[in-house]
Amino acid sequence: MKNKIKDLQVNNLSLNFGQNIIIDNISFQLDKSDILALVGPSGSGKTSLIRCITGLETPDEGEIIISDSIMFSDSMNVPIEKRDIGVVFQDFALFPHMKVSENISYGIKKDNKSKTLSQISSLTDLMLMCGIYHLRDRYPDELSGGEQQRVALARSLGPKPKILLMDEPFSNLDPGFRMQLRMEIRRILKYLNITCLFVTHDQQEALYMGDRILVLNEGKIQQIDRNIDVFQNPKNEFVAEFIGLADFIDGKVLNDYAETEIGKVEIKTKAKNGASVDIMIRPDDVHINKTKNGNGFVVSREYRGMYYIYYIKLNSGKLVKSLSSHINNYNIGTKVDVKLKPGHPLICFQNKVII
Amino acid sequence: MIVIKFLIYFFIFLFCIPFIYLFQFGLSNLFFSINNLFSINYFQLILNTIILVLSVTFTTIVISLFLSWATEMCKLKFVKFWRILLIVPMVVPSYLAGYLFILFYGPKGAIYQFLNNLGINVNMPDLYGFWGAWLCLSLICFPYVYINLSTSLKLVDKKLEEASRVLGHNHFQTFYRIIFPNIKNSLFAGSILVALYTLSDFGAVAALQYNTFTLAIYTKYRSFDFSGAASSALILILISMPIIFYSVKMFVLNSYKISQRPSNFSNLKLFDLKKYEILVQLVIFFIVLTSILIPFLMIFTLIFKTHLGFVETLDLIKWSAVFNTFGGAIINSMLCVFISLCLVLNISKKNSKLRLIFENLMYFGYTLPGLVIALAFVYFSINYFFSIYQTWVILILGYTVLFLSAGYAPINTNVQLIGEKYTVASKSLGKNFSSTFSNILLPLYMPGILKGFLNVFILTAKELPVTLILAPLNFHTLSTVIWDNLEEANFSAAGIGSFLLILIISIPTYLSVHAEDIKIKFSKTNR
């Protein structure tokens, strides 16, 4: 493996509010020009972790290192303004009394009292790159949500920070617009090769934005991996359910196969023959057909335009989800035949942990 | 409805009285007595007044900026205690503060006597004139700016501070470039209040013998030079026009705003003063000492000067004065709240011309010195309406013209904040206006009504010049009792009167400053 430059190292970080453990002994690293998506349900400690790295919160224990210089340890606590971090806040926090251009140049250090030519040109470059040059003389309250978002990004990039932290930057924007802005911002981040820690509670957004994903729950790291691995090989049931829809169905192991109530299926496990495991199935692995005497029936359905998500109750009483084309229009109560056709070996869990 | 319309027109007329007085009587005398114009040194008066206004305003700004920074943005011990204590100077009426100031620092004052008893003989600095008036007014006025500033500091989005820190600016740079621009407006609002207070103040300058316009007007009135008083009042109004115009337009309304806290709080750590904390604490203590502890100490020494017991000294005050103070203040506050509600509910359509006229006249009323309004009412009643001259009716009307805007502003803001949606909702559910008003609107307007009521109550209770001039013969309030006794050097009676007056207005003052907190508690218990 190449010895990559580590832009951010967090070692054994802990934070408590009185009796409540907010962050429980977390360690991870962030490589140069990597985007790490930090995802977890609300109250999982995402924001606290970001605030610790920024310096807005003082951790109880641990170490924070940003590109080889210690920012926080037992004996050190570098003040916020000297940490070389860019932050994009959830509600942007643009200075209401400053124009767009003043907002962006606020963080850019002036060598002398007057601006140098290079500073002016870098300011212009930054505004052009973020697509806000035409807005430079406006005040924040005259901008739309998406424009404010881009100004906030440009402002945080102004001082050329070592790492960029984005705290749920899209949560205040309307959903249709989010997709477009996600693409644009990812393009800018990749163009600048900037190291970024991206916080979100939306797993779709995490899968799109992150090169790697860190799943956090109850202050503990559940998994940190490439985005494909987090989706395909979740380490435990929490990650499986949080990143994409998942159901678990009982099965008995027999030579790389398992017998379940909806058919025999290929699995990937270290469990011994005869062991009972919980097999993870995604909705697209479950196929349904309308029949007279099926092994389940439709309990409810969600119409999502191109496809349906059907909720099926099996004869055993187990509930599974199935993704089905929009052509297959089954009413609630319809008897269906449920089959597993994943097309790849499925992964198994025992006691909520992968095996 | 016709009754209410009539009431509104009646008050519009009342507000016009000072202008009739100033421009009919004042203007004619100004030109008629053109020879007298230069016999009095108007130029010196103008200069004295302007210098005092500017220096007091500037000093209160400096003190309040420091205090609000320390109590709202720094990690400070006893901060809750300081926050309560620092609004107390407001309850000391200016005429009382002026006298206490002399009794403490003056040529034969408490300090002098104390040192003399120790055998040290010093000449106390001469505090009569500018220096005394400046110090005294600064010390009782700074809470007006401080309250405004600390409230708006609470309202500044803390995320902005975080953003600035992250962008590489330290605490002080952030304060200067981000926080200050966002609290600038309320700083202006507060300092305009102080400027107007100083301009129209008559008690402190009279006690400390600093010759400003208000004192000159009062002296002329007392020596029966009514035309001279009127023309001086006119000149005073003309020089203060810029401030009045500015404040009427923008700030008086805002300074009484019922504010809403931002919903998402950020717990950015307060600034750690470290070893400088003791220094900051000392400065705050010094301000509290000079503006609160010393005046209160002086009041108590006054009370016990006669070697009478506390109960016996209480008898020096006529209880009718206490009753009059209470009664006058309550009647006037209720009247002001009633008129404000009538106005807000009846001509609530935006851009209504009648409302615009009323509001502007009302704010002019607030910015006029009480002395001028009192003289105008005397002039008017003697010439056109002698039956109400020197009755309590004209006294209450004078109070109302002077203080209506202080009651109107919070009620109006509250009504604007609530909007029309609840009225519409309630009416759509089949309720008529009176049911909607008593069940829905009144509880929602309560914080504003409460704050308006308290504002007017406090101002009326400690009012002096209007009461002195307009009150019926032998009608006394606590403020006139204190004033008369101080002038006649009956210090014990003045002391006990001050004690009672401060007692009466201190609780309303506390409640008024914390009206928003009351609102929050109120809504919590309702849930």
Distance between the termini of chain B: 36 Å
Order of helices and strands of chain B: HHHHHHHHHHHHHHHHHHHHHHHH
Low-confidence stretches of chain A: none
| SSE pattern of chain A, N- to C-terminal | EEEHEEEHHHEHEHEEHHEEEEEEEEEEE
Radius of gyration of chain A: 24 Å
Overall form of chain B: globular
Shape descriptor of chain A: globular
The amount of beta strand of chain A, in percent, is 35-45%
Going across the major beta sheet of chain A, what is the strand order? 6-7-8-3-9-10
Looking at the chains present, what oligomeric state does this protein adopt? heterodimer
Helical run tally of chain A: 8
The first-to-last residue Cα distance of chain A is 26 Å
Mean pLDDT over the full residue set of chain B = 82
Number of strands of chain B: 0
The unreliable regions of chain B are 254-265, 520-527
Helix content of chain A: 10-25%
Helix content of chain B: over 70%
Number of helices of chain B: 24
Structure, explained:
The complex is a heterodimer of chains A (355) and B (527). Chain A has helices at residues 46-54, 100-105, 117-129, 145-157, 175-192, 203-209, 227-232, 237-242; strands at 6-17, 20-31, 35-39, 61-66, 69-72, 85-88, 163-167, 195-200, 212-217, 220-226, 247-254, 257-260, 263-268, 276-281, 286-290, 296-303, 307-314, 319-325, 335-340, 346-350, 353-354. Chain A is an alpha+beta fold. In chain A, a hairpin with a 2-residue loop joins strand 20 and strand 21. The relative contact order of chain A is 0.12. The relative contact order of chain B is 0.12. The chains are: A alpha+beta (355), B mainly alpha (527). Chains A and B meet through strand 6 of A and helix 8 and helix 9 of B.
Offer a quick outline of the entry.
Chain A has 8 helices and 21 strands.
